[in-house]
Each structure stands twice: as C-alpha cells, then as structure tokens.
Specification:
It is a single chain. The chain is α+β, with helices and mostly antiparallel strands. Helix content is 35%, strand content 11%. The protein has 17 helices and 19 strands. The protein has a six-stranded mixed β-sheet, sandwiched between helices. Strands 9, 10, 11, 12, 17 and 18 form a six-stranded mixed β-sheet that branches. The longest helix is centred in the middle third of the chain and has 47 residues. The radius of gyration is 28 Å and the shape is globular.
C-alpha cells in the first residue's frame, strides 16, 4: 500500500472549489498554497467545438478591462459553482457545445481534445491544471517549471464537495480526475465533515456561511445526516455585500451632494482637456499651448460642456473614477467591481458589524407607518428610522466611522447602519423576513426553470438519437443511451473512445456528439432538481414519507439560528442533544466582527482603502450571537439542553473545511481509504458513493 503523508516525497493534495474562492494545497499544511477567485472572465464559444470557451479564462478583471484598454469585448463572467444549487453543475443553457444543431463532429474540422461538454467541469479542469502547474511547485528536479508537463499524476487528490451533491455528479468528477488528470488516487470528502475535523469533532451541526448561501449540515459520528441538510440562498456573503452597496449608495447621495458633483465634473473636464492636448500633439508637429485662467484651470474649449458629463449617484469603483467620462463597463464587470469595493469595505470592519442579542433594526420596513418625529429624522441615505428602535437602539447615537471613497468623497458610517446589514442573518423583523422569503421564491422558480431545461434537453437528445439510429451512419446505438439508464462509468470513457470509432466516408472519420454524456448525466440529476417529491412519496395526509428521497428538499427561508434547530429536529431523537451540544460555524461569510471596539479608528486613506489601524470588534461575535439565538429557540420547550458553538479564529474560518481535509489527508490511518486507479478500473465510478459516503 502506498502512503501519502507528511514527510514523504509525495504528499496528497487537497482541493476545495467554492462559490467565491478555490483553495488547493498540500495535506498537512496549515494554509492552501493556491488561493484564487472562482469567478473568471471568459469568452463563450458560439459554435460547437472541443471547448465551451473560445479564449483562455482570465482572472485579472476587477480593476482593468480584459479585452483592450477601454472594453471587455465578448468576455463574460463564469463560475464552476452554480449559485442556485451550490453544485458543480451547468444547466443546458450554459453549455454552448450542447446548443449546436449538429449531431456529429469531423476530425478534419474541429479539435477533439475533450469529450466533456459541461462548462463547470471544464472550469474545474482549468482550475486544477492552473494550481498544479503554477502554484504548487510541481516542477522538474532542477527547479524549473515546465508547463507542458503535468506532474500531478504523482500526487493523490482529496476533493471536497457539498453534502447534498447528487451521486451522478460525484461519479462524473471522479472520472474526470482519473481520465483527464491521470491521478493515482482520489477521495471525495464532504465539506461539513471536514469542518468538524478542523475543530476536533466527529459529531456536530455545521453552519457553513458561504458566498452564495448558508448550509446547515448535521454530522453524526463522521457521517452526514442527509435528512437534516438545509440551505438558504438569502443568507450569503454576496447578499451582505449587496446590502453594503445599498448603504454606501445612500451615503454618496446624502453626504456627497452638490460639492461632490462639482469636484468630479471639474476633474473630468481637466482629464478631457489633457487627453485632447495629447491627441493634438501626436498629430500636429507644433501644437498650440492650452490657455489657462488666473487660477490655473484650463479654459473651456468648444466641444466640452458641463452638461455633457454625467456624474453617477452611486458608489463608483476605482476603474470608473479613473475614467475621464465616468462611463461604466458592461453590466457583469461593473457590478462585480462594485461588489469588490463593497467587499473591501466589509472586510476592513467598516461596512458590517454584529449587533447584540435583541438588537432592533434602525430602518423601518417598506410601507411601515412611522410617526412624524421618526419620519423627520432620516437615517443613512434618507431611510426612515424605525420608531421601535428610537429608544432601544443605542447605536443610533454612537460615534460614526469616517471613510474616504475612491472618488475622494469623505463619508461617515454609523454603527447602527453596519448592524442593520448583518441583521439579515439574525433579524426576524418584517423587512429581513420578507427579503429571505423573496429570495426563497426566486430560488424555487429558478430550480423549476432548471428542471424544464433539463427535461427539454433530454427530450431533444432522444429525438436526435432516433433520427441518428435511422440514418445508420452517425451517433450512437440506443443501448448506450437508453431511456432512464442511470449514469455509469462507461458513459464517460465509452463516449471518449467511441468518438474515434465512427464510420468512415470519403476517408473522413465521423465522430460522435458529446451530448450522450450530458444526456445521461442530466437524466440522473433531474430528480434532485425538482422542488417537490413525486406523488408516490406522499402519505395519506399529504406529508413526505421519507426526507432521504431524491429531490431538492433542502431549501428554506428561515434564519441560520432557526435552520440549526430545524436541521437537528429532523434527525433521530437520540441524536438531537449531541448535535446541539456542538455547533461549528465556518465559512467566509461568518468572518464578521462585533460592533464594540471600533472606536476612534482612522479610515481616511485614499483610493477607498483604510489608512489607519482599525480596531476591530470581537472576533467571536458572530458565533456568540448565533448561540444566543439558538438558545432562545431551544429553551422555550427544552430547558435542559445545552447549546455550544465552536468556531476557529477569524483568520481560519474561511478555510475551515480545507483545513479539515488537510488534517485528514495527512493521517497515516487514512491511507487505506483512497480510491485507487485500480479500484476505479475494477468497480467503475460508482465506487465513489460506497467509499466516500
């Protein structure tokens, strides 16, 4: 038996592809060596080809354009993790290869380097290859990096995946690891189990506050209790960043005012004058000098008017401030740049803060009747102050924190507004509950659209198959893609080899379409996309007979504290006390400090950065607030149960699952758990569901 532990020449690799960041490193290390954003810029292919992307994805797109100096071209933002389901999943509308009307490929026309038509899985290959070649030091003996040679086949890979991932997707990923990357051994570990190992637990309720949502997963003695898994797409770090943006947009309007527009308009005219002067000097050999007034400002020339320059009334990212005309980029990149600035404000402790137990939101809910005094006193951005918080919210009169925006505008952020943003996680008031309910309805609608897309794709694939079989010269036999045939190991490898075994006409080889793999994979994933169980799973009273059956029963609109209680109560009675006794909080969305402690911090740095040292609040404020909220719910009917919340420090909270995988992959007792290439050859990809529960 080959071992891959710390101290050997060959160590195991640990990979965690999340919705915000991708983390890859060696087992036994305390930090991943490769850590980069999962969202990349790519040009999607319009015609059927061997790749979903016409150009190599680029990661540097926040502060500069990806296609030239002033434009983004046909680039778009892509991410391997679907924000609706949390899986490494691509709906049919995203797979450009599958949208082609052609049912076959010619080796003389297109490249056939890959048979995988899924966009997300192609991005997974790209991310792993990037980490193997550029970040992990997999180079030759002389220390030189050779990007044409992949040394990853010497290292086994421990891959983290979500607790509610369908078995077919895990099988597909296992096939990609062995068939594409030629790894010696692979193991798939649930991220919730890894988070438990990171804090030294085997039984706990894991609260993973990620970028696209919050997952609550009960883990009992090292195994996931699937009946208790819950997901809320409204309580994610991206939702918090959007709320920070709304708050900062209100500050720009209320505190920026006319002086901000005049200052920015004057800067814009100076930049345009300078650009015109540079253009004239490049064309004319002896250009005339620009005239200035007594104060040294450029004299306005024909063609440049104040009315022609529009100053946006929102938080502008740094790239937009640098432009003379303040024109934004196209929507995906402009929105991402604004979110990146909101993320920076959040991470420095000025945009968010965890309020104490019993905190009352300072802003009134939409349509809520406010008194005359409360309506006269407007909060940040003109928001009406909640009358219920006027006498109970002590942060309304607390000192405000200064911050300098990238455009030079000085604003002051109140502590009450920072706490209001985080109440999305804990607040049960009308405003926060309505927001979570709306996101829940949108998620259900999106899942129904996914199901419809998959059903249409499968039906279209069956029609194409019937036409192909009648022709007798293209496509595949009906036995290899039978209706309802479960996804199996032969689908990927068989299709990969059959693409080179087509019929020959005029000395040209006809290759088979990659739709066969996608059709079988979508057929296996379709039950897990449905939000309602089949009629056979309902009892006489209309209730679900078994929560472990295959459909998307994980969605909820409750707060994370209520999600913890609901997840525990779905498990067996004798497990509930132990699951509540250990609650593990992890994820980058939980890296929020408390409201106390940020007093007198200097935040007047230029370019939207903090210039002084910010005294952040309590790092355990989020876990402590969650514990108090859970205790308030549990102790209403079960006074004797103890609730204990454990969480790593704020520097390790975002990589908690990766740390658990690093610990497990370095243990000597774990070495007989690997799925070897020999096991894959003998038992097929279905072994991943048996050896990696």
């Amino acid at each position: 038996m080959t071992t891959y532990t710390v101290g050997n020449d060959v160590q195991a690799l640990v990979a965690d592809i999340g919705s915000y960041s991708t983390k890859i490193g060696y087992a036994g290390d305390d930090h991943p060596q490769a850590l980069y954003n999962s969202t990349t810029a790519a040009v999607k292919a319009q015609n059927q080809s061997s790749s979903n992307f016409a150009k190599t994805p680029k990661r540097d797109f926040t502060l500069r354009c990806v296609d030239g100096a002033n434009g983004d071209g046909d680039y778009d933002l892509v991410n391997p993790v679907d924000p609706v389901t949390g899986w490494l999943f691509s709906p049919p509308s995203k797979n450009s290869v599958n949208n082609s009307a052609s049912s076959s490929l010619s080796s003389n026309e297109q490249s056939t380097t890959t048979a995988d038509a899924w966009e997300s899985h192609e991005l997974v290959n790209s991310y792993l290859q990037h980490a193997f070649q550029h970040s992990l030091g997999l180079s030759r003996g002389n220390g030189e990096m050779d990007t044409s040679v992949d040394y990853s086949h010497h290292h086994p890979l421990l891959m983290l995946d979500k607790s509610h991932t369908p078995p077919a997707l895990r099988q597909r990923l296992l096939e990609i690891m062995f068939e594409t990357h030629n790894l010696p051994s692979v193991f798939f570990l649930r991220d919730a189990i890894a988070a438990c190992y990171a804090v030294g637990r085997t039984t706990a309720t894991v609260v993973d506050v990620g970028y696209s949502g919050t997952m609550v997963t009960p883990v009992y003695e090292g195994f996931v209790e699937r009946s208790g898994v819950l997901r809320n797409n409204a309580c994610g770090a991206r939702n918090i960043e959007e709320r920070v943006l709304e708050m900062m947009d209100g500050l720009v309007v209320s505190q920026g005012g006319r002086k901000r527009k005049e200052r920015m308009r004057r800067r814009a005219k100076e930049k345009l004058e300078l650009q015109q002067q540079q253009q004239q000097s490049a064309v004319e050999p002896s250009p005339k000098k620009s005239k200035r007034d007594d104060k040294g400002h450029f004299i306005k020339e024909k063609g440049i008017t104040a009315s022609a320059i529009t100053i946006p009334d929102y938080l502008m990212p740094l790239y937009q401030v640098r432009r003379a005309s303040y024109n934004p980029r196209k929507d995906p990149f402009h929105a991402w740049s604004r979110l990146a600035l909101a993320r920076e404000i959040k991470e420095c402790g000025l945009g968010v803060a965890v309020g104490p137990m019993g905190y009352v939101s300072s802003s009134a809910a939409p349509g809520e009747d406010a008194s005359a005094d409360a309506a006269a006193a407007a909060g940040e951005g003109g928001a009406v102050i909640n009358p219920a918080a006027a006498s109970t919210n002590m942060f309304l009169t607390a000192a405000k924190l200064p911050y300098t925006l990238p455009d030079g505008t000085n604003v002051e952020i109140s502590t009450a507004s920072r706490c209001d943003v985080v109440e999305l996680y804990f607040g049960n008031d009308e405003q926060n509950s309505l927001y979570r309910d709306n996101v829940f309805d949108e998620t259900v609608q999106k899942l129904e659209e996914y199901s419809k897309e998959v059903e249409d794709f499968i039906a279209e694939g069956e029609d194409d198959e019937d036409e192909t079989n009648e022709g007798g010269s293209k496509g595949i036999t009906s036995s290899s893609a039978a209706k309802g045939d479960p996804y199996s190991n032969t689908s990927y490898r068989g299709e990969k080899s059959s693409r080179y075994a087509g019929s020959r006409r005029n000395n040209k080889k006809t290759l088979y379409s990659p739709n066969v793999i996608s059709t079988k994979l979508y057929s296996a994933c379709l039950p897990y996309l449905r939000t309602e169980p089949p009629n056979g799973l309902l009892d006489e009273g209309g209730n679900v007979s078994n929560m472990n059956d295959n459909y998307f029963h994980f969605l909820t609109s409750a707060s994370p504290a209520q999600m913890v209680c609901d997840a525990v109560y779905r498990c067996d009675r004798d497990q509930q006390a132990k699951l509540l006794g250990d609650v593990v909080v992890c994820g980058g969305g939980a890296c929020i400090t408390g409201a106390s402690g940020v007093v007198g911090s200097s935040a007047l740095g230029g370019g939207g950065t903090v210039g002084g040292t910010s005294l952040l609040g309590d790092e355990q404020a989020f876990p402590d607030r969650l514990r108090e909220e859970v205790e308030a719910i549990v102790h209403k009917h079960t006074m004797g149960w103890r609730v204990k919340v454990t969480s790593p420090n704020i520097s390790e909270r975002a990589i908690c699952s990766w740390l658990g995988g690093s610990i497990l992959g370095s243990l000597g007792t774990f070495q007989d758990m690997w799925i070897s290439k020999q096991d894959y050859e003998e038992y097929g990809a279905a072994i991943v569901n048996r050896k990696c529960p």
